[in-house]
Amino acid sequence: MVTLKFMGHELHLYLSAAAQFEIDELTDAWNAGHVDGATLTDILTGIGPERGEFLAQVAGILSEAGAAAREYVGRERGDALGGDAIARLLPVITPKDWLQLREAVTRAMAEGYGTGGEQAAEEEIDLGLQEIERQERAAGKKRRPGRRCSGWLRSRA
After folding, report:
1. Tag placement on the chain: N or C end, fewer CB within 10 Å?
2. Do 52 and 97 touch, CB atoms closer than 8 A?
């Protein structure tokens, strides 16, 4: 998951399978209206108003997928801007913001396919532990740090 500060919003871009399917449909729709038969990379790295709109839509899809993924693991959803909301910001963003958005989209896509390098340790999520904590919160139990570990250590002494 790639975190991006964009125009006062903190976006979490994530490539899920469902997001990839939406992006594939978007790319197919692009190619239906253009004769160049461009790949996703060609479209994202190109320059022009239509490509800006396309980048905004892809960023919106990844942003919504990121918010859903964060919610699934028990974190706050965070900001989720859809493609139309990002597209409305295009007239006022700086070239620096544009490049950061495009770079973040590219990194999120690469991470989704496992080619984005190693994630930082603080970004890794223990889904099993989060599920246990979610169940304990639902049952009204308060988790006391170290309780389980210290009991296990005492039983081994």
Report:
1. C
2. no
Provide DSSP, 86-118: HHHHGGG--HHHHHHHHHHHHHHHHHHTT-S-P
Reduced to 3 states (helix: H, G, I; strand: E, B; else coil), residue 142 is coil
What pLDDT is stored for residue 121 in this prediction? 39
Of 103, 91, 122, nearest to 58 (Cα)? 103
pLDDT at 145: 54
Q: Can you list the pairs that 125-131 forms with residues at least 24 positions away whose Cβ atoms lie under 8 Å?
A: 125/73, 127/73, 130/73, 130/74
Amino acid (1-letter code) at residue 14? Y
C-alpha span between 34 and 50 (Å, rounded): 11
Measured between its terminal Cα atoms, the distance across the chain in Å is 41
For CA atoms 109, 112, 113, 117, the dihedral sign is: positive
pLDDT reported for residue 122: 44
Q: Which pTM value belongs to this model?
A: 0.66
DSSP string, 51-71: HHHHHHHHHHHHHHHHHHHHH
* 3 state SS of 9: strand
Q: pLDDT: is 50 or 142 the higher one?
A: 50
